[in-house]
Design goal:
With 133 residues, the chain is of the alpha+beta class. It has five helices and six strands. The longest helix has 16 residues. The chain is globular and about 40 Å long.
């Protein structure tokens, strides 16, 4: 019995030294088409996947502001806004990212650009632009 106990102590000590598998950081080449619907409709996910402070550009006023997490959380969800205002969307690949254009068809009165980039394989919103006239 002492022999078995004596053998188990070094084994237990070695097991304690073993490193636990590290948690994976980032995403594994997340597809934008899979990411976007969740981003547009899941408030918590959208907040996690937005770079704060968020750059907000108002083209007509030539003004740049920074949006805080609290301001972002109080805004309408993108999917709700698109549905309620009968807006259209268009996706465009850009150097270093993706851009979502949200607009009112047949009008320049409402034109928004949401700019996303990948970091560690995950998509993040980093800039919003209001180009409405």
């Amino acid at each position: 019995m002492k022999k078995i106990l004596a053998m188990m102590i070094p084994v237990a000590a070695m097991a304690g030294c073993a490193t636990a598998p590290t948690a994976q950081r980032g995403c594994v080449a997340e597809k934008f088409d899979s990411f976007l619907p969740r981003y547009m409709s899941d408030r918590q996910f959208a907040a996690e996947r937005t770079v704060f402070p968020l750059e907000s550009l108002a083209t007509a006023e030539e003004k740049k502001t920074l949006v805080a997490r609290e301001q972002f959380a109080a805004s309408a969800m993108l999917a709700d806004m698109i549905k309620s205002d009968h807006l259209s969307t268009r996706q465009l690949a850009t150097p270093g990212g993706m851009e979502l254009n949200v607009f009112r068809p047949d009008s320049d009165s409402l034109v928004y650009f949401y700019r996303f980039r990948q970091q560690d394989g995950c998509w993040y919103l980093w800039q919003f632009e209001d180009s409405s006239l």
